[in-house]
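Reviewers of the previous submission asked for a worked example of the structure-prediction workflow described in the proposal, so we include one complete record here. The input consisted solely of the amino acid sequence. No template or homolog information was supplied to the procedure at any stage.
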Amino acid sequence: MKNRRSFLQQLGMLSAGFVLTPAAISCSSPEQRTDEATGIADASGEAVTGNTRATLDAIGLQLYTLREVIGSDVKGVIGKVARAGYRDVETYGYSKENGFWGLHPKAFRELLNANNLTSSSGHYDFGQYAATGNTDQVKTYIDAGRELGQDYITVPYLGEEVRKGADAYKAIAEKLNKAGELCQASNLQLAYHNHDFEFQRFGDTTGYDILLKETDPELVKFEADLYWFVRGAQDPLAYFRQHPGRFVMWHVKDMDKNTPILNTEIGSGSINYATIFEQAQQSGVERIFVEQENFTASMDPFESIKQSYDYVKETLLR
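From that input alone, the workflow returned the following structure tokens.
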């Protein structure tokens, strides 16, 4: 295992995915220069600031992981997340009426501050906007994100009814660009989170390829859910090579060795994250979020998030 310095020397070339062949991981080029002063290079070979190191150290948790308990005890759950070591949380489920689990953005930000936590990204329901193009709801998300101090307004999911074919994905891309303009005007960044359905093929392309091609790189970034890349039989390294700098966030969760449709704690499954973090490819990653949609049988959820945090912190980012 390479030490922490070696990992940071590859930052800006990070990748993730399944166990890769030697051909797949041998993807560096003479153009990908490393700056000696910082040990970090971006897609153009220019040095990346030390702030990127700090944001990766602030490992985040997507709070959907704790959806079974957070609604009944938001303050207690946030305290336990902080005690597990996390310094960043990604929200979900916001509504103008109920805020974040009964707390409106200002109150929720105060709760995070009291626990030495920040929230750099939030998942917001874009279903209505994807169907109608009405930006009113998007504007409420922007207001909430600004008040909470977030950097990213993230699209978490697209309903099947709005993604039925290549033309539908092109229409979605157009709406994402428009929403991205609104976010940018408020000093926020729009991002898109994948599952595996985006990799469905339409002739010689996929829905995901359409979104990447048809959206403006300055307006729309991507949150790469690496588990879903693997479930979709995709090589994230190839995407990171083809679209350097666009994958500013990662969702990291492991795949159960016996039942791939289930998650397991990071480091316990079939995704060789140690090899992947060492054999890195340019992605532009700034934030890493642990997320699980289910836990190992009988495991306490807070034990689970602590185990995953420790593995990312002590093994992958060592």
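The chain has 14 helices and twelve strands. We consider this example representative of the routine output the project will generate in years two and three.
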